[in-house]
Write a structure and sequence with these properties.
282 residues, mainly beta, nine-stranded mixed β-sheet, DUF3444, DUF3444 domain-containing protein
């Protein structure tokens, strides 16, 4: 069932993820599962689904119908390369999480645990959709990424990551402005903004969007969680982080010097949050 919408012809080359079972650590502060309870699902939403490569949320699907008890009919989205580099990347089978996507075959999913988060999308031409990192979201970047991975994909199936908070929406002229996040020791998945090479932010140009691995849902702290946790840190959803997190990303202890206090306050202002808001889920 597809609610009468036209669905792109299935070329027989795309299948959804195989069911997998993974253990996920409990975060220190926020319950991310409440953002994907049955009540959160509705027709015409688009959701990110954990893939079958390393269980990161890089598959996308549009909700066609929701049943109770939980079951959803979906239409899978597949990446559409818009230049030679993107087309080669797609043909290599390497994962993609942002750019242009089209509708493919439909499917039924009964496991609510397969879903990670709702995604923001923009309708494009010929029944395609544009999906880009949004201001305020937190994302994983491939460490040491290179577009030439597509020429030797079998040697690029395991990844190390950097984590960033997005400071500007995408434009074709300038790409996306981001700031690095660094993990704090002593917490399951708490990160704070940090400088990189003396800079508090850096640009991902529009021709390097494949450097974005996947969005990581996050909770922005309000300063009331614990005495040693100020406002403006980010607790990332552990379900969207690698199980060997401390082996594949940089981390510091809670006393290490990162971005000055006024810069953290700058993030708060930039995202439009205030100290008395409860809207701190990214």
């Amino acid at each position: 069932m597809n609610n009468g919408e036209e669905v792109a012809e299935d070329d027989g080359n795309y299948e959804g993820p195989e069911p997998v079972t993974i253990e996920v650590a409990d975060p220190d502060f926020y319950d991310f599962d409440r953002d994907k309870s049955e009540e959160c699902f509705a027709v015409d939403q688009m959701w990110a689904i954990f893939d079958d490569l390393d269980c990161m949320p890089r598959f996308y699907a549009r909700i066609n119908k929701v049943y109770s008890p939980f079951k959803v009919n979906v239409t899978w989205l597949v990446f559409v390369g818009e230049d030679l580099g993107e087309t080669s990347w797609k043909r290599s089978g390497l994962p993609v999480a942002c750019g242009k996507f089209k509708r493919e075959n439909t499917d039924t999913i009964e496991d609510i645990g397969a879903f990670s988060h709702k995604i923001v999308w923009k309708k494009s031409v010929r029944n395609t959709y544009k999906i880009y990192p949004q201001e305020g979201e937190t994302w994983a970047l491939y460490k040491n990424w290179n577009i030439k991975w597509s020429s030797d994909p079998d040697n690029h199936r395991e990844y190390e990551y950097e984590f960033v908070v997005v400071l500007s929406n995408y434009t074709s002229e300038s790409g996306i402005l981001v700031a690095h996040l660094v993990k704090l020791k002593g917490f399951v998945c708490l990160f704070k903004p940090t400088k990189t090479n003396g800079m508090s932010s850096f640009q991902i140009p529009s021709n390097e969007l494949l450097r974005f691995s996947h969005r990581v849902p996050s909770y922005r702290t309000n300063g009331r969680e614990r005495k040693d946790v100020p406002e403006g840190y980010f607790e990332l959803d552990p379900a969207s982080l690698p199980s060997n997190l401390e082996e594949v990303t940089n981390f510091i202890d809670g006393k290490a010097e990162t971005v000055e206090g006024k810069m953290v306050e700058g993030f708060v202002i930039f995202f439009g949050f205030s100290s008395n808001t409860d809207s701190n889920i990214l």
